[in-house]
Amino acid sequence: IIRHANEQGLGLSPEEVDLSPLTDAAEVRLMRQLADAPSVIARAGATRTPYRLTTYVEGVAAAFHQFYHQCRVVTDDRQLSAARLALVAGTRQVLSNTLGLIGVSAPEKM
C-alpha cells in the first residue's frame, strides 16, 4: 500500500498529516485498537501473560483487514489518502513492535 502510494506521489511523513478526515467506523475502530498498544503491552508485562500480545496482534490484524476492505487508501482526495496512509504506517509500526516483543519478525512485504 505504502509503495503504491509513493508511486502516486503521496509520500508524506505521518507527522505532517491531518487525521481529521478519518471518520469512517472502520478507521475509528482501527485507531482505537492502535491506541490500546501501550496499555496492552504494560498489562502483559506486569501480569506476565505474553498471550495478551498475540491476542492483541490478532485484533489489530482483524481491524486492519476490515479497514482495508471498507476504505480505499489511495484516492483522488490527497488529504484523505494521506490520513489513511498515516493509519497504515501506524498499523505497520504497532504490529512490528508488538511482534518484536514476542520474538516474531514482521515481513516487509507479502
Radius of gyration: 15 Å
Q: How many DSSP-defined strands?
A: 0
Largest sheet: none
Helix run count: 5
Percent of residues in helices: 55-70%
Measured by DSSP, the beta-strand proportion falls in under 5%
Unreliable residue stretches: none
Distance between the termini: 11 Å
Q: Based on the structure, what is the oligomeric state of the protein chains?
A: single chain
Which structural class should the secondary elements be placed in? mainly alpha
| Helix and strand pattern | HHHHH
Shape: elongated
Mean pLDDT: 90
Describe the structure.
The chain has helices at 2-7, 25-35, 37-46, 51-70, 78-101. It has five helices and no strands. Helix 2 (25-35) packs antiparallel against helix 4 (51-70) and helix 3 (37-46) packs antiparallel against helix 4 (51-70). It has 110 residues and is mainly alpha-helical.
How are the secondary structure elements laid out?
Blueprint: H1 2-7, H2 25-35, H3 37-46, H4 51-70, H5 78-101
Helix pairs in contact: 2-4, 2-5, 3-4, 4-5
Features:
single chain, 110 residues, mainly alpha, 5 helices, elongated
Short characterization:
The chain is mainly alpha-helical and 110 residues long.
